[in-house]
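Troubleshooting: if your tokenizer reports a length mismatch, compare your output against this known-good record of 188 residues.
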Amino acid sequence: MMKRNRIWTLFSSMLLISAFTFGGGFVIVSLMKKKFVDELCWLTEEEMLDMTALAQSAPGPIAVNAAILVGRRVAGWPGMLAAVLGTLIPPVVIIGTISLIYAQFAANEWVRAAMSGMSCGVAAVICDVVAGLGKKVFKSRDGLNIALMLAAFVLTYFLKVNVVFIILGAAAIGAVRAALSRKGGDAA
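Known-good structure output:
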């Protein structure tokens, strides 16, 4: 019975998050963190951070990738299915409905004004997530992680390096670091 409740909570939480969130995957991931880490305590911040990195680096929409990872971690395969369905149902219904009345919808000045206002809200949510994750990295006092975070910012913002290359580089550095720490642990 408890697992059914957990699966229902996954589905209903993802349905609500997906239905009432504008701005794409990073906004949804930040709300997933608030729900599953801060509120329900089903995941740690580190697990959510790792899942966010995996969701971003895997092909496909970040929101769906994150739902797959969170759902699987929280309640296995049924949880994964519930989280993905909860994530996909709202945009499919909304896009399907809008496609029926697209011409009238796109020309409406109120709709354009609302979308413009929502983009400000999206920017605020993304800034909140970046600040929270950045604070955690600085608190860790891990020189390599701090250097990677700052390098990723400089490469993306100032040098306009494609984020795929930054992710691949960070993954390679992480793999080397893990291999070296494992090798050091074997020697001990």
